[in-house]
Design brief:
Bound molecules: adenosine-5'-diphosphate, zinc ion
Radius of gyration: 16 Å
Strand order of the largest sheet: 2-3-1-4-8
CATH class of the domain at 2-26 and 79-113 and 163-207: Alpha Beta
Largest sheet: 5 strands, parallel
Shape: globular
Helix content: 40-55%
Number of strands: 8
């Protein structure tokens, strides 16, 4: 299964991606995590991306398209994958098409902007393995500590309120048109994000024809 998860920043794409990944045994490819990883290890790509991420802007198309091209060529993507955070612009979607990659389904998780702003402020992330948590909705077993690797959880710089507003603006302007792009080829399913994580998961899995 080749799957794209669409939705505003903080709509819960990453969380759903992790769950589907475990269930179907296919990897999640998160451009956000790959870029943050590069930032942390100080590669040239990371240094180039830093100013964009911290301002809540998108990293240039050619950079993320390159990242995805390399990553999808790896062995573990043979039987399918979940794209979390890519494509985010029409040119990125067109690049994916040009790579000859045939996507099976696109799930769009819809959450109102007001809800997003509230949720994102409680988000915490593991700087080591990229796992995400929420101080109310998805608590780690021990406060401030990653369940997977034991590292410290932090708030992302771009999860501060001013940057979130800019990310939402960019989302509506550049990413939302992808809904029509994928609706036009009959691949889009819309899932209304729910208050409870488990309810959103049930709807997402149902959209894939899987049981919770
Ligand atoms: P979220 O989904 O919560 O917005 P991500 O971790 O997916 O967070 O992305 C964080 C940042 O990384 C984005 O604001 C953007 O700067 C950059 N980024 C990630 N994916 C892309 C992409 N496909 N195109 C351009 N920039 C991207
Ligand atoms: Zn971790």
């Amino acid at each position: 299964m080749k799957l794209i998860l669409l939705g505003a920043p903080g709509a819960g794409k990453g969380t759903q991606a992790e769950i589907i990944s475990d269930k179907l045994g296919i990897p999640t490819i998160s451009t956000g995590n790959i870029i943050r990883e590069a930032l942390k290890s100080g590669t040239e790509m990371g240094r180039a991306a830093k100013q964009y991420i911290e301002a809540g802007q998108l990293v240039p198309d050619e950079v993320v398209i390159g990242i995805i091209r390399d990553r999808l060529a790896e062995d573990d993507c043979r039987n399918g994958f979940i794209l979390d955070g890519f494509p985010r612009t029409i040119p990125q979607a067109e690049a994916l098409d040009r790579m000859g990659i045939v996507i099976d389904k696109v799930i769009d998780i819809e959450v109102a902007d007001e809800t997003i702003a509230r949720r994102v402020s409680g988000r915490r992330v593991c700087l080591d393995c990229g796992a995400t948590y929420h101080i109310d909705y998805k608590k780690p077993k021990a406060e401030g500590v990653c369940d997977h690797c034991g590292s410290t959880l932090v708030q992302r710089k771009d999860d501060q309120p001013e940057t979130v507003a800019e990310r939402l603006h960019v989302y509506h302007e550049q990413t939302e048109p992808l809904k029509n792009y994928y609706a036009d080829c009959g691949k889009l399913t819309v899932v209304e994000g729910q208050e409870e994580l488990a309810d959103t998961t049930r709807l997402t899995l149902a959209a894939l024809g899987e049981n919770a």
